[in-house]
Every structure is written in structure tokens, then in C-alpha cells.
Amino acid sequence: MPRQLDQTGTQQASLAKRFAALIYDLLVLIGLLFCVSALWIVFNNGEAVSGPFYNTSLFLTVFLFNAYFWTRSGQTIGMMAWRLRVQTVDGYTLNWTQSLIRFFSSLFSIACFGAGYWTMLLNDERLTWHDRFSDTRVVVLPKRDTKKQPK
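The structure corresponding to this sequence follows.
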């Protein structure tokens, strides 16, 4: 069930911050994919693994990683580090359908030599293809004041 998110002080995310968060998430995903592969190897008696079931499990791992965080809080681990959040146009967390659309359209954006990302530099709304297709936005969250207030 999508929940409403606080919009106070948010602004559109830059392409640089999006890529930085993507790099962080890729590092986490590499570790996660190693773990999934290790499980496959254990169940395959230590032999190398290949084939459609293995490839599908890796693909599903990547999708479920992203969709879980997008539907839960709007932030993957990399997005948390860079204070980014993906949300609907109305300021809600994504549902699973929007996550699926966003995931596949982002793959398409990357497959087109990143054209889906670069188009955000050419439009005033600063939206990527996957933002448009899934009716979502990536916003930068304001910095939190971590200093304690005097009593």
C-alpha cells in the first residue's frame, strides 16, 4: 500500500547524483549477486552454474532489490547515501506495478546508450524516460540538522 511522503524541502535530483547513487547500488548488487551465485553453486555440488533458471534468478534478484526499496521507503541503499528518493508525482511511495515499469524502462534507457538519462538535460522538467513512463520523480531530500538544540 503506497504511503504519502513528506515533501518539505525536496527538489529534483541532478543527473550526477543519480549516477552516484546508481554506482553505490551496483556495488551492493554485485555482493548480493555473488551470494545468490554461491547458493546456486552449493546446490550444484560445487560445480559452475549456467542456464536460464540461474540467469532468471539473478535478474529477479536485481529487480526485487530495487522494487523492495522503492515500494518500502522510496530509497535504495545508494539513494539513502545521496539523500535521493523516488516517489510518485503526487508524493507517494511506488507500488509494485510502477516499480516494474520503472525497472524495465530504466533498462531500456541504459540499453539506448544512456539516452533515457541524457534526455533529462534537455527538458525543463528534468525527467528521464523511466520517470515519464512510470509517473515517478527522483528528488533530493534536505539535509537533516544533526546538531542538538540547546535547552
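Residues 65 and 120 are 25 Å apart (CA to CA).
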